[in-house]
Amino acid sequence: MARSSDRAPGATGTPDAVDSTEVTDGSDAVGDPLRPSDHYDSVAPAEPAAGDTAASSGGDRDGGVTNPRLGLVGYLRFFWRQLTSMKTALFLLMLLAVAAIPGSLVPQRTSDPNGVVQYRADHPDLFPVLDKLGVFDTYSSPWFSAVYLLLFISLIGCIIPRTKHHFEALRARPPRTPARLSRLAGYRSVTLEAGEGGASGVDLDPAAAVTAARAQLKRASYRTEVFGDSVSAERGYLRETGNLVFHSALVGVLLTVGVGGGFGYTGQRVIVEGQTFTNALVSYDSFNPGRWFSDSQLSPYNITLDKFRTTYEETNTDALGQPTDYTADVTTRTQGGDPRSTQIKVNSPLAIGGSTVYLLGNGYAVDVTVTAPDGSEPFTDTIPFLPQDANLTSQGVIKVPDGLSEQVGMIGFFYPSAVETGDGSGILASSYPDLLNPVLSLNVYDGDLALDDGVPQSVYSLKTDDMTEIAGAGAENGQKALQLTPGETADLPNGLGTITFNDVKRFASLDVHHDPSQVWVLLFAVLTFGGLLTALFVPRRRVWVKATATGTGLRLEYAGLARGEDPTLDRAVGEVARTHLTTLGVPADAAKAASRPGSTSNDTGPSASRGGRRITP
Amino acid sequence: MTADLAYYSLVAVYSAMAIYTISFVTFALDLAKRSGDAQQAASAVAVPAAPVGSSGGTLRKGAGGGSTIVLDRADTVTGGGDVPGASGGRRASKFERVATSLLVLGLLVHVASVVMRGVAAGRVPWANMFEFSLTGTAIIVGVYLVVKLFVDISYLGAYVTGLNLILLAIGTVNYYVAVSPLQPALQSAWLVIHVLVAILGTGFFAIAAGLSVAQLIQTKREQAKLANLRFMDTLPAADRLEDLAYRVALVGFVLWTFTLIAGAVWAERAWGRYWGWDTKEVWTFIIWVLYAGYIHARATRGWRGARSSWLSIIGFAAVMFNFSIVNVFFKGLHAYSGL
Q: Would you call B179 and A138 a contact, using CB atoms and an 8 Å cutoff?
């Protein structure tokens, strides 16, 4: 913060740099927002005098930087100033944009874990290198974190002094009226003269004109101060407030995302029609707790999937089979509450027990029973099959470790609307996602399921290393894959027993999500947006009205000064002039004509219009 | 019915493209004419420019016949320099007026096409890439015409029609898909808000990028590094172009910020998390950061001018990349191209 005021007008030791007796552009150190020294609107570095240049090598305005006696504190101060300068912020912003790119080029573990596995298989040489660089976890990698943390430190280093300064500015009075208003933006002057009939209706008293101007500007929410024959007014402090709110809210978003996420959890659960899910750690298929999660956070409730309904497009021939609706009819029970029937849909999750339950996926589950030759049923279960394509060809695995003479594993393909592929091979495919012609095809293996190796296995994959294919395309005995429709029973090869395809059901894949910080993130995001709007579109401006007696009449001068972007300044000054003249008793049409823009420029610089040509009729 | 309307919509697109093409050619002719005008102005430069405007002192009788008002009128100064050279109040050439009329006509046909597509689908017409291109290009033209109401940016006509033709042609030829119903994930009011605001933002970014390109060329000319492209003499000075580009980009940035927030709110409803670094999310974020950088660059001493405007152009390039390459070739949850 010190930087920007280092060379404020009047504070410089070189009287020739700035005429300190007259603040020519109407700016002052207190009223202006505090900005980094290399901000465009902050005071330009004064040209060092010839003698100074030699001393401070290369015209660096902060001679201390090259001072060999710069101590530790000095260095810290120097680095802090560097970090909080506009150029650094800009550089870090650009770096952030570039650093975010790799995460979109390769799959991320957080959003696409299967993609990472696939990438590893596809690029075995490249993968370890990239993995070392952390590009598969780009957004939590040290280098990405370093960039945004530095950016936010730089940001905070900018916000704090500016906020302090802004609080002071809010209490400050508008600055003294510049001596030559004619050098400022939107300048216009009007002389009212007593006519031949004597002044009637128009008040030619300068003091009264100033009082009227002050009252008018006050009404228009300007902060005003009278300096002799003029009134100085300033408005738009909200602009800097919005700016600070915007940047502080960004810090708020970062903090709530970073810290708040640790209190939540997400869990996934696949649940088949008729099944009930109980909100306890053991019920989840997968569970990602936040850093500060504890079991007690899981409030007791359960959800029964009564029915899963789907609608597919049936009439539009261009989109046959495209899903148009998924609805999970569920019954929920909370502790001590009555059962409640409700629905979960893709865009309308269910809020229950402090968490939210989302419907993220669905598919078919097959209900099969394996019967041993002795009539016992070592296996009966409903197994979710994972969808492989848009027509819901699904794949799943059935493992029967006990109860048969051998361990048996089956890789199953389920076709909801089975058709032959047409090449005579008898290979099936699904032509429609709904159940028009459901067929379950099973490749059967016997041998060792390798369940006792102690290595965890996925329920969706079969380890066939120590197994023999006894039915399917690869079976040496020529036995084809078993094909079953619901209700059918087939013999397993080698007299192992039989398998019955009882029924096909649907499953829903539910995501349970609890994130107490979410609402805070939203709040800060809304603040960000509101702050942005005010910071960009509320004009900060100063307006002066000066009234001087000319002997026979009254000379009125109006001028403005933009503090930051202000394309409508000229119009605003004109409006002030028009209203003021009308208040003084000038007829409306004359006031309007007199307050017409004095220049065609939108430019807000002080050189926009030069005063001068006095035209008398 | 649906198929008929979709067909008529397509016919309307091609008709609009034909009209845009003529408009583009006419805008190009206007630029050529501007070159000629500039040449003439240069040879007639000896004649001093007369004071522009009729600003003179006015004397009015007060209502009571009492007082006299003398207006001290400041010299008319083209402070930001609306136009360098002698063409202060340059009248629109015949070419320009014809081209603009054609552009409006093309837009009407284009909008008819968008509406028919929407009616055919029974929903908002921006649920896949083709429809996004169709609506997006109409909005770019709309934004151009709206901005033109406030500031004369007709020198961008050729850029707008050219860009529009390219995008519309790519969208129609490469991305066309038949009308299809909305998949469950898209069935939300946020589809209307989030995507529409994103398209609007894109429209403003497109105009801002055009102004920035014009600014860069103008800067080169002002530094006398570029002698040809005479028509640039009829354009505003570089700093005025920069001002305009900045203001238009600001509107785009606000809309983009809203898109980002609305998208996060929707993602929470549909996908169970508000932010997950999906590829489209990443690129939307990158674009936001680029434009944030642009706004900061413009406020940084030493960066105002040509340097900052490059960021605006890079930002718009990223917007185009996000729409085309990311949609088609990158894997992610925003897989709604329909291709």
A: no
Enter the pTM of the model: 0.85
Question: A244 and A307 in one domain?
Answer: no
Question: Residue A590: which of B60, B183, B261 has the nearest Cβ?
Answer: B60
Tally the domains of chain A: 4
pLDDT at A553: 81
H or E element: which one contains A396?
strand A394-400
**C-alpha to C-alpha distance for A16 and A29, rounded to whole angstroms:** 19
Residues of chain A with pLDDT > 70, as a percent, come to: 85
More confident residue, A340 or B331: A340
> Could you tell me the CA-to-CA distances from A559 to A184, A204, A598, B21, B284 in Å, in that order?
6, 20, 11, 48, 43
Single out the residue in A144, A171, A198 at which a domain terminates. A171
Question: Closest to A533 (Cβ–Cβ): which among B254, B277, B302?
Answer: B254
Are A308 and A372 in the same domain? yes
The rounded Cα A61 to chain-centroid distance in angstroms is 39
Asked whether residue A608 is domain-assigned, the answer is no
At residue A585, φ and ψ (nearest 5 deg) are 105, 5
Domain assignment present for residue A607? The answer is: no
Burial of A244 (0-12, 13-18, 19+ CB in 10 A): buried
> Among all residues of chain A, which has the CA nearest to that of B178?
A318
* CB within 8 Å: A139 and B185: no
- Is residue A221 located within the same domain as residue A369? no
Q: pLDDT (tens digit, 9 = 90+) per residue, A391-434? A: 999 999 999 988 888 899 999 999 999 998 877 677 889 999 99
> How would DSSP label each residue in B114-161?
HHHHHHHHTS-S-SSHHHHHHHHHHHHHHHHHHHHHHS--GGGHHHHH
For the purposes of burial, counting CB atoms within 10 Å of the CB of B170, is it exposed (0-12), middle (13-18) or buried (19 or more)? middle
Distance CA A610, CA A613 (A): 9
We report the CATH number of the domain holding residue A230 as: 3.30.310.50
Residue with tokens 């090259």: A66
Residue type, A147: V
Q: Which residues of B touch A345 (CB under 8 A)?
A: 184
CA B264/CA A431 separation, integer angstroms? 36
Residue with more model confidence, A7 or A222: A222
Query: Which chain B residue's Cα is nearest to A111?
Result: B276
Among B52, B64, B275, whose Cβ lies nearest the Cβ of A200?
A: B64
Whether A307 and A447 share a structural domain: yes
Per-residue pLDDT, A19: 36
Per CB-CB distance under 8 Å, the chain B contacts of A265 are none
* Number of Cβ pairs < 8 A linking chain A and chain B: 285
Is there a single domain that holds both residue A25 and residue A135?
yes
Q: Give the residue from B101, B5, B84 showing the smallest Cα distance to B49.
A: B84
Q: What is the pLDDT of residues B176-233, one digit of tens each?
A: 988 888 889 889 999 999 999 999 999 999 999 999 999 999 998 888 777 777 788 8
Q: Do both A489 and A430 map to the same domain?
A: yes
Q: Is residue A617 part of a domain?
A: no
Q: pLDDT tens-digit profile of A102-120?
A: 988 988 888 888 889 889 9
Please provide residue A165's backbone torsions phi and psi, each rounded to the nearest 5 degrees: -65, -40
Residues A200 and A272 in one domain: no
Contacts of A538 in chain B (CB under 8 A): none
- Could you say which of A93, A594, A607 has the minimum Cβ distance to residue B71? A594
Residues A159 and A242 placed together within one structural domain of the fold: no
| Residue A283 placed within a domain | yes
For tokens 């999970």, what's the residue? A328
Query: pLDDT at position A56, please?
Result: 38
Q: Residue B60 in 3-state DSSP?
A: strand
Pairing of strands A355-371, A379-384: antiparallel
Q: Residue A68: which domain range?
A: 2-171
